[in-house]
Amino acid sequence: xxxxxxxxAQLATTGVARIPGVVDGATCARLADAVxxxxxxxxxxxxxxxxxxxxxxxxxxxxxxxxxxxxxRTPATSAIVDQLLGRETWENDQSWGPALxxxxxxxxxxxPHKSWHLDLPGRGDPDRPHAVRLFGYISxxxxxxxxxxxxxxxxxxxxxxxxxxxxxxxxRPSCASDWSxxxxxxxPCATKATLTTTATTAAIAWASS
Length: 209
Fold this sequence. Notes:
With 209 residues, the chain is of the alpha/beta class. It is 28% helix and 14% strand.
């Protein structure tokens, strides 16, 4: 499996692409069971919402240490990353993770006003990404349902700012507050909150179907 022409166009335009069928449904169900089993050790009952925490649930390092999400390391995954970064140019022996788990919160949903950030610095050749950010979904995530927010097209913002700032590193934005005046009216994907840096990073969302 490699990115189709339309998926490549989507990635180039928005900074993120959805790739269905990379992991089968049975594997996703098994991974979801593993996440719920880990949460159960903290008193969270899958069948009893009254035991669920509110909002983002951290402290899931055990899942990463157990290499639970190595299941996303499939031939299809490797082929797509090879396509984007080049064969034998990236590491494939590290644990895959972590788990980003978010429970329902009360009140109406609004676009987050804090925690916007760059996962990696915007530097290097803007047309040759040096990393790929993967988001693997193991359950249905509806719009405004707690999934990671990405500002569509923000990779082009990074591209435009990285070049003129290249000679003045001290002026280079490093946190969300530096960028917030630059993204009014931006449209997040319906799926934590991040600016894509596809000038140097390709963001890919895996899905079972």
